[in-house]
Amino acid sequence: MGKGLVADTHELAATAARSLASGCCDVVLVVGAWLNRLLHFGEPPKWSKDVKFILVDVSREEI
């Protein structure tokens, strides 16, 4: 959820409402992480069924 990129007190910080935010988002930018069990494999109901993932990694083989 961008921990450390946006201050916890910023009006656009979704730290306290991550489940709500992840279930309602249209696009997710995943930088340096995998869609593993911690991110519920990018599957509903945790994520919207129509969500689009943009995966960014330093290693092309990992994507």
Automatic annotation (TrEMBL):
KW Lyase (keyword) present: yes
One GO CC term, this protein: peroxisome
Keywords: Lyase, Magnesium, Metal-binding, Thiamine pyrophosphate
Domain Thiamine pyrophosphate enzyme central: 1-63
Molecular function per GO: lyase activity; magnesium ion binding; thiamine pyrophosphate binding
Annotated GO biological process: fatty acid alpha-oxidation
UniProt-listed InterPro entries: DHS-like_NAD/FAD-binding_dom, HACL1-like, Thiamin_PyroP_enz_cen_dom
Highest taxon above the source species: Eukaryota
Any one Pfam family match given in the protein's UniProt record, by short name: TPP_enzyme_M
Cofactor(s) of this protein: thiamine diphosphate
Protein name as catalogued: Thiamine pyrophosphate enzyme central domain-containing protein
Source organism of this protein record: Musa balbisiana (Banana)
Lineage, opening ranks: Eukaryota, Viridiplantae, Streptophyta, Embryophyta, Tracheophyta
